[in-house]
């Protein structure tokens, strides 16, 4: 009903009373929450994702989910991650049980998956089903994401293309983000 909005009042009076500075001044913009969910192996191209993130100039938090299938490759990815600038935080989570994939994906603004090749890409579908837009390589059957406003397809020859999408995604308004999330969810349906 209409009366529900009254709930915000106590919060508001506290701010007006001068206890809290205006949010925009008090805190930097929140980081864009990005996730990678796949095996950590050269084919899935996590090192490329980290390379792109290292060039991003906005606050991002990159969550890596998946088994470290190739230990040497994983170690080299971790080394690259440790050299990222301060605006980029990388969090390693390990494997996610299949029944938690949807709920895990849903906690992020963007699914980043610059894979070197997928016949289908089930995790891309899972991302849409969770209402999370995807930024993927052009090496999958999913080619119409830009047209459908559910994500972005970029060439692996163009790291800057990935950087540009991440930065514009960070700058998206709440309503635009919601619209894209709904479109992604509908696309999976």
Architecture blueprint of SSEs:
Blueprint lengths: L8 H8 L6 H4 L5 E6 L8 H9 L5 E6 L5 H12 L5 E7 L6 H5 L4 E4 L8 H8 L4 E4 L7 H4 L2 E4 L4 H12 L3 H15 L1
Parallel strand pairs: 1-2, 1-4, 2-3, 4-5, 5-6
Give the structure's gist in a few sentences:
The protein is of the alpha/beta class. The chain contains nine helices and six strands.
Would you mind describing this structure in some detail?
With 189 residues, this protein is an alpha/beta fold. It has nine helices and six strands. Strands 3-2-1-4-5-6 form a six-stranded parallel sheet, sandwiched between helices.
Helix content: 40-55%
Order of helices and strands: HHEHEHEHEHEHEHH
The overall pLDDT average reads: 88
- How much of the residues is beta strand, in percent? 15-25%
C-alpha end-to-end distance: 31 Å
Q: Largest sheet, described in full?
A: 6 strands, parallel
Question: Cα-atom Rg, whole angstroms?
Answer: 18 Å
Unreliable runs, pLDDT <50, ≥5 residues? Answer: 1-26
Total number of helical segments?
Answer: 9
Strand order of the largest sheet: 3-2-1-4-5-6
Query: Which geometry do the CA atoms define?
Result: globular
Q: Which class of secondary structure composition applies to the elements?
A: alpha/beta
Q: What's the total count of β strands?
A: 6
């Amino acid at each position: 009903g209409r009366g529900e909005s009254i709930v915000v009042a106590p919060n508001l009076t506290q701010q007006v009373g001068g206890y809290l500075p205006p949010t925009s001044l008090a805190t930097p913009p929140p980081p864009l929450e990005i996730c990678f969910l796949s095996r950590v192996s050269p084919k899935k191209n996590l090192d490329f994702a980290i390379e792109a993130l290292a060039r991003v100039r906005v606050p991002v938090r990159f969550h890596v989910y998946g088994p470290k299938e190739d230990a040497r490759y994983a170690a080299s990815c971790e080394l690259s991650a440790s050299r990222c600038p301060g605006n980029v935080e990388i969090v390693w989570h390990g494997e996610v049980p299949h029944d938690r994939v949807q709920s895990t994906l849903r906690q992020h603004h963007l699914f980043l998956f610059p894979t070197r090749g997928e016949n289908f890409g089930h995790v891309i579908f899972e991302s849409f089903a969770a209402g999370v837009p995807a930024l993927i390589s052009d090496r999958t059957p999913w080619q119409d994401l830009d047209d459908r406003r559910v994500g972005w397809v970029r060439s692996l020859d163009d790291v800057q293309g990935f950087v540009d999408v991440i930065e514009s995604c960070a700058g998206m308004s709440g309503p635009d983000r919601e619209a894209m999330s709904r479109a992604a969810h509908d696309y999976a349906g």
